[in-house]
Amino acid sequence: GAPEADVIEKIDIGGIALLRAAAKNYRDVLVVSSRDQYEAVTKLLEDTNGSPSLEDRRQYAAAAFAATSHYDTEIFKYVSQGTSLEGGSQEPSTILRYGENPHQTGAFHGDLGALFDQLHGKQLSYNNLVDVDAAVQLMREFAEGQPAVAILKHTNACGVAQAETLHTAYVNALACDPVSAFGGVIIVNKEVDLATAQELNKLFFEVLIAPSFAEDALPVLQSKKNRILLRQKPVEFPKKQIKTLLNGIIE
């Protein structure tokens, strides 16, 4: 409720700049960004004889950048009120075909190109991305071992199977619920071979995600104009998950 001039006057410049400078130089500096860290930092310095590890310094640097990021976000939220930028501090990276429903708009804030090579098909939709995320998270459980296939619809697994061959795994996964699998998202943990591609081609699905596609399998799968084929890159996904809730986030 304070006058805007008073709020603007109290925006800190120097303190934030010092925190950022210290955090930037974490290889040589241990930055303390909160009084809540005093006890832990004191113990750390005692335990390490005044020489904390690079890993420890990086951890505190990350906390400092989190603090400055939060501070800048709060300033943005205040200053952007009543402007065209109100409600978001990121420019949309990818404008989607539509939002959760056809009459809504949607955008993805991130770098899909760092995760996938899209080899074929139309642009991913909002709902496609939600299902792709669920599929990728599920298949992380089957990163190693036998060929595995998962079929998802509206983030729910219609079928999941492992077998000696990818073809058999797909047939078994589809058998779990062939009705719900229609129009879904399919993910596999091995290269898609010709036999599997020919079997997949019998089903209408929106998206297929695989680490690779055999040269003779790709033309079979590309026979459907709008079918989305994604080659997943070997990227390590964040372990922490954040979700918007009410007027904030949970993690």
TrEMBL record:
SUPFAM superfamilies associated with the record: Cytidine deaminase-like, Methylglyoxal synthase-like
SMART domains: AICARFT_IMPCHas (SM00798)
Pfam family membership, one: AICARFT_IMPCHas
GO cellular component: cytosol
Any one GO biological process: 'de novo' IMP biosynthetic process
GO molecular function, one term: phosphoribosylaminoimidazolecarboxamide formyltransferase activity
InterPro entries from the UniProt entry: AICAR_Tfase_dup_dom_sf, Cytidine_deaminase-like, MGS-like_dom_sf, PurH-like
Superkingdom of origin: Eukaryota
Family annotation (PANTHER family): BIFUNCTIONAL PURINE BIOSYNTHESIS PROTEIN ATIC (PTHR11692:SF0), BIFUNCTIONAL PURINE BIOSYNTHESIS PROTEIN PURH (PTHR11692)
Protein's recorded name: Bifunctional purine biosynthesis protein PurH
